[in-house]
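Changelog note: in this version the structure field was regenerated for every chain. One regenerated record is shown below for reference.
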Amino acid sequence: MARKKTLSEQVETEAIEAPSAKATKSTLRAKVQKTSTRRKSYTMDLRIHSPASLGYLGIEGIDTAPAMVRLAKVKGLDVIALTDYYSGDFIDRVVEAAEESNLTIIPGTAIRCALDSCTDVVLLCLFPEGYGKSEIEGFLEDLGMSRGDFGDREYIVDLPFEKILSIIEKHGGEALPSRMDKTPQRMGVLPALVEEYGFRAFDLAYGDSEQFFKKRWPKLKFQLFSFSNANALAQVGSRTAKVKMPVSGFEGIKGIVAREALSEA
């Protein structure tokens, strides 16, 4: 007849067979990492103008900021970027209007600059969520602008292209070339943007322009969008992109629009 184990022997056996605390922590960490890297789909419109832009079509008697937020939600948007030319005047109002919603507002501005023979390179400059009017104005001043030039869509930033990119990065932002397929002059500098500066994300004016990228650089992976360029409430979300990102907001966008590092060779 088998001897019945004493209580001390049972406790000793269970302690040996139980998983170690280290193993448990390791398993838990692996589960957390797997959860944190899961990619979720977000619907975005990253080129939207406000009454701070010349030619914006407002509706009399309607407060644009809360109306913009409501319309974005009705259209199923998760993220919008406010990108008035050389202005951050309306950002704080829209951010405040979105506080009670789960809509993410990306602060931004649109600028024009020169590269090679093209004097009409348009960049959407997108910044972290903490940026507001004052931070955008500080960025514009770093570009050499005077306050009298704020809001002037015809203004051309008179700095070397590399310097402009470094100022954007200094402010923690990312540049997204926009509508560079709209004119032959703009199209002419696409190779430089891709091959010399490592851009892999573009906001296109025409859907069929994707074929140009596929034929010219068949081995490169691009993020090609076509946002609304809304200049009126009704246009918000008229053209969007649905993108999978591991995190929401600016950090997620940064991961898909950041330039690719190019080798020195």
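Spot check on this record: Confidence is low (pLDDT under 50) at residues 4-19, 21-25, 30-36. The chain has one domain: 38-257.
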